[in-house]
Specification:
By secondary structure, this protein is mostly beta strands. Helices cover 5% and strands 52% of the residues.
Length: 480
């Protein structure tokens, strides 16, 4: 399966990423990044051969852009050759197939180590292009063996070998000159993700929010003192076989009080761009974390939801089976809800990530009380996440009446929902009911008021005192 990329949009992102002279990365949370690096050039007027051996191991060669940031030189790449087969012992053996080289063998005799050189002709190197290997075949003293007689000593690397992934350019320059050019390209091997820790006091519904951004570098290259940006949003990017999958800014007041934050955020194109305030080093195969947000006194009340028929939905067809939707559960979900607004000390673009909830005990110890995921969320939107199931709240749902008349084309169904609160304090439980049998329905009888949340769902808000049992009943009439 593949996604289709918007070339114009991605080109604009790359152009933005290459602005400036510092080594820079713009990392996307879809296993790729835009890299901007500096290439020292000493060109003559006309055609020049240039080798660039500092790209990542997962560079996309056809994404390369080379330019003079000063705009004084016009550069044209007539030809680009990409080599991503760095020299290895097996590769060099393959380059010397049919030739005789020396193999060094270390011997220990009388506690003295001596070196022995053994000439051997390479009949088969064992190298398989693109990965894999076979047993080598070496001829020593007229006999064939399937192991190396020692460590091979190669006379040279050969003209056709590379130590690192390399781009070879045939450049046309309109004039001679020595300057630092900028090269930018798209590469795989980078990911980043946001994680949020929300801590509640022993009692109450407010939370303190702390966010971390985690960056991973598996590109095969270390970036030292790089300017790093993070792009949040669903950017279309072609990925073969697998569809690959920002960081929020601090409140302006907090940033001013603390003399500037570690991460700043701005809207960019149809996405959000987050920039680390200072250059940082991201080593190859390193995971780096940066704290990027703090907010206090965010109102995030607990909501209890009993959805006894959560496994059943309206599928667009008439359902007359008496038993459909009558198998329920007793679990009451615990949810946390907060509005991403400035009035709630937020009002910022929240990139997708994991929310972990903690609550402090009476001794001050933080205890983990659940986690959930959120998607990219704009400001002024409401976030509702599930943290678990309530221990001391019980729901019970059963069908008490069912009648159907196929000739007159109607169906009546009655349900009874019981709610029991074994906590020491009162709670409000939201009872969610799905009217799943047919699209044309009407509530004929009800014990309590309800709210219609969509075309097939209603909700009852039921206050329940400690050790109290409340009962909700309703009758729905379907016609077709």
């Amino acid at each position: 399966m593949k996604q289709i990329i918007s070339i114009a949009s991605l080109a604009g992102l790359m152009a933005q990423a290459v602005f400036g002279a510092e080594p820079a990365l713009t990392i996307y949370n879809q296993d790729f990044a835009v890299v901007r690096d500096t290439v020292p050039l000493d060109l003559k007027s006309g055609v020049n051969n240039v080798r660039y051996a500092d790209a990542t191991a997962r560079v996309e060669p056809d994404s390369v852009i080379l330019r003079d940031p000063g705009g004084k030189h016009s550069l044209q790449i007539w030809e680009q050759n990409y080599r991503n087969d760095p020299v290895t012992q097996e590769l060099l053996l393959s380059l010397f197939e049919g030739k005789t080289i020396d193999f060094q063998n270390l011997r220990l005799k009388d506690n003295t180590q001596s070196r022995e050189l053994i000439p051997g002709k390479i009949i088969r190197s064992g190298y398989v292009p693109g990965g894999g290997s076979e047993q080598p075949i070496i001829e020593v003293n007229g006999k064939l063996q399937f192991t190396l007689p020692g460590t091979p000593l190669f006379p040279d690397l050969g003209d056709d070998t590379v130590l690192k992934p390399t781009l070879n350019w045939l450049l046309q320059s309109d004039q001679p000159g020595k300057f630092d050019a900028e090269v930018s390209y798209i590469t795989g091997g980078f990911t980043w993700e946001a994680d949020y820790n929300l801590v509640s006091p022993e009692k109450g519904d407010t939370v303190d929010l702390i966010g971390w951004v985690t960056m991973n570098n598996h590109s095969g290259k270390t970036f030292r003192d790089a300017k790093i940006k993070l792009m949040a949003g669903d950017v279309n990017k072609i990925q073969p076989a697998i569809v690959l999958n920002g960081v929020m800014r601090m409140k302006a007041m907090n940033m001013a009080e603390e003399g500037g934050g570690t991460v700043t955020e701005k809207a960019f194109d149809e996405f959000h761009l987050y920039s680390l305030a200072r250059p940082t080093t991201l080593l190859d195969r390193e995971t780096k974390q940066v704290e990027f947000v703090r907010a206090t006194d965010v109102k995030a009340p607990v909501i209890y939801v009993y959805d006894g028929s959560s496994d059943y939905r309206f599928y667009g067809g008439l359902i007359q089976d008496r038993g459909y939707g009558t198998q329920g559960n007793k679990k009451v979900r615990v949810m946390r809800e907060f509005v991403n607004a400035e009035t709630n000390h937020l009002g910022i673009a929240l990139p997708k990530g994991k929310l972990r909830f903690y609550r402090r005990d009476a001794d001050g110890q933080m205890e983990f009380v659940g986690e959930d995921m959120i998607d990219h969320t704009p400001r002024n939107e409401t976030i509702r996440v599930t943290t678990g199931n309530a221990f001391d709240l019980v729901g019970e749902r059963k069908q008490t009446n069912f009648r159907v008349d196929t000739s007159d084309k109607w169906l009546d169904e009655t349900f009874e929902i019981k709610l029991r609160n074994r906590k020491k304090e009162p709670v409000e439980i939201c009872v969610v009911e799905h009217l799943y049998r047919w699209s044309n329905w009407e509530i004929m009888q009800k014990s309590d008021d309800f709210k219609k949340t969509d075309s097939q769902t209603i909700e009852f808000r039921m206050p329940v005192k400690p050790d109290e049992e409340r009962t909700v009943t309703y009758t729905v009439h379907y016609s077709w």
